[in-house]
Amino acid sequence: MMEREVRDAIRAVASARGLDTTQYTLFGYGGAGPLHLAGYTEGLDFAGFLTFHFAAAFSAFGCTTADYQHRYARSVHLGLPPGCDPEAKRAVAEAINGIWEEMEQAARAEIAVGREIRFTQLAMVRYGGQLSDLEVISPSPRLKAAADVDRLIAAWEGLYSKINSRVARYEGAGYQIFELGLLASVEKVKPRIVKQAVGSAQPEQRAHKGTRNMYWKGRWQPASLWEMELLKPGNQITGPAIVEHPATTLVVPEGKRVDVDEWNFFWLR
Question: Which CATH number applies to 68-186: 1.10.1060, 1.10.600, 3.90.700, 3.30.1490?
Answer without folding.
Answer: 3.30.1490
